[in-house]
Amino acid sequence: MRDVTRQTMGHVLTGDFGAVFDTMAPHWPLSENELAILSVQTLTQRNMLGQRFGHTVGVDLASEQLVGDTIMRITYIEKLDVHLIRWVFTFYRPGDEWLVNAIFWDDDIDALF
User: Fold this and answer.
1) Distance (Å, rounded) from C-alpha 113 to C-alpha 111?
2) Which of 16, 19, 75, 97 has the fewest CB atoms in 10 Å of its CB?
3) Quick check: 87 and 112 in contact, CB under 8 A?
4) Residue 41, Cα to own-chain centre: how many angstroms?
5) What are phi and psi of 27, to 5 degrees?
6) φ and ψ at residue 15, rounded to 5 degrees
7) Please, are residues 81 and 111 in contact by the beta-carbon 8 Å criterion?
8) Tell me: the pLDDT tens digits for 50-100?
9) How far is residue 101's CA from residue 67's CA, in Å, rounded to a whole number?
10) What is the pLDDT of residue 47?
11) 86 within 8 A of 75, measured Cβ to Cβ
């Protein structure tokens, strides 16, 4: 899942949020309709953020956490002109395959410490 999140954050860096969801879709047990709604909501929110935080200038891997062989959390920092966005990807492996359990992003810098 490290490669998937790295690729996803590459799309964040270029502002291609449709590709963010396309990259995650094969690993996310949601319907196409649910993913389409999330994509539109994300794009709408990001357009509002751009006015406040500026443009994306880079991304950094912040942390990786593994709980046994079952749960993985990968956190990235999206650096913008005047602030940052924390991206948190949580994966669950019930068998042989990792699945997206949750993805969220926020501007909570303190949660990184």
Assistant:
1) 5
2) 97
3) no
4) 14
5) -110, 0
6) 80, 15
7) no
8) 778 988 999 999 999 999 999 999 999 999 999 999 999 999 999 999 999
9) 14
10) 80
11) yes
**SS3 annotation, the chain:** CHHHHHHHHHHHHHCCHHHHHHHHHHHCCCCHHHHHHHHHHHHHHHHHHHHHHCCEEEEEEEEEEEECCCEEEEEEEEEECCCEEEEEEEEECCCCCCEEEEEEEECCHHHHC
Q: Are 68 and 49 in contact (CB under 8 A)?
A: no
| Per-residue pLDDT band at 42 (split at 50, 70, 90) | confident
pTM score:
0.90
Q: How far apart are CA 48 and CA 109, in angstroms?
A: 19
CA 92 to CA 94: how far, in whole Å?
6
| 72-104 per-residue burial string, b: 16 or more CB within 10 A, e: under 16 | bebbbbbbbeeebbbbbbbbeeeeeebebbebe
Give me 32's structure tokens: 């196409």
